[in-house]
Amino acid sequence: MDMDKENKIVIAIIIAALIMAASIYFSFKLTGKAVGGEKTSSDYNKPNNLIGRHIVTKIIDGDTVIAEGDSVRLLGIDADEKTYPCYEAAKKRIEELVLGKEVNLEKDVEDKDQYQRYLRYIFLDNKNINLQLVAEGLAVARFSPENVKYKSEIIEAEKQARENKIGCKWGGISQTSIKSDSYETGSEWKKLAGSAIGACNAGNYIGKEAIVEGKIVDAYKSNTNTVFINFEKPYPNSCFTAVIFSSDLYKFPENIEDYFEGKTARVKGVIKEYQGKPEVILDSLEQAEVL
Q1: pLDDT 10s per residue in the chain (291 long)?
Q2: How many helices (H) and strands (E) does the chain have?
Q3: Using only C-alpha atoms, what is the Rg of the chain?
Q4: Which CATH architecture has domain 46-170?
Q5: CA distances from 130 to 147, 276, 278 (A)
Q6: Which of 6, 81, 102, 184 is catalytic?
């Protein structure tokens, strides 16, 4: 009789253990969380498409962060890449501002860029961090036609930073103007050696470094002080575009867009694709030659 009683107790304990194990298993399956509240990979599969409150877990550079496993590119700004002067300053500052903190991510029109990074404005305590980095002279304004929610505020912030020589981008940099006659003689232009491809063939060389040659038919400075130099056909039908960002304009003569227009030129660089068109970023005179 005692043996039967002991067997019943053992069986009861086994059944209770099985019920408890099943309960824990199905609870884990439903919530996606382990016992003790530890986060699992499913915690990062946010149903709201990375909008709203999220923790910044890593900083890539001055305009790209990781929020709970997802890459986020800050909208409306452009900060220096590695090897450029303000890379470390911008990266350090955004680390100070948002690393390890819960921020509010706000979407504009486009959800992701071509590299599958989420495109977002970052707010901390209702303060626009994208705008703050530009206001502190650590990044420049850069907008696509689609995402313009805070365009006027960010452009104004860059203007104020530039005029007051604030931050790494503008502090202590002399906007030196060089007499245009030195460019007319070609003494300042780098003589680009090697064979060139035609501007209208540049689209066949995406991702490759090349020398591109053609006639410049349209050149202008945008309201963000970015210069666009269009080859062979005027915008928006240009075959190829050379781009000079506002942060690099001090390396070129004043009114560079007027100087280029109507001339035949060569530019050298890695050909990239932007909105379906080939382009090269010019950040020094050594990349250009007026023929």
Answers
A1: 555 666 666 676 777 777 776 666 555 444 444 433 434 434 444 445 899 999 999 999 999 999 999 999 999 999 988 878 899 999 999 999 999 999 999 999 999 988 899 999 999 999 999 999 999 999 999 888 889 999 999 999 999 998 999 999 888 543 333 333 334 434 344 566 678 899 999 999 999 999 999 999 988 888 888 999 999 998 888 999 999 998 888 777 777 777 777 888 899 999 999 989 999 999 887 888 887
A2: 7, 16
A3: 28
A4: Beta Barrel (2.40)
A5: 13, 26, 27
A6: 81
- Please say if 117 is a catalytic residue: yes
73 part of the active site = yes
240, 199 Cβ separation under 8 angstroms: yes
Q: Which of 68, 73, 95, 153 is catalytic?
A: 73
The active-site residue out of 68, 88, 106, 117 is 117
Task: For CATH 2.40.50.90, list the domain ranges present in the chain.
Answer: 46-170
56-69 in b/e form (b: 16+ CB < 10 A) is beebebbbbbbbbe
| Best CATH choice for the domain 180-290 from the list 2.40.50.140, 3.10.450.50, 3.30.450.40, 2.60.120.280 | 2.40.50.140
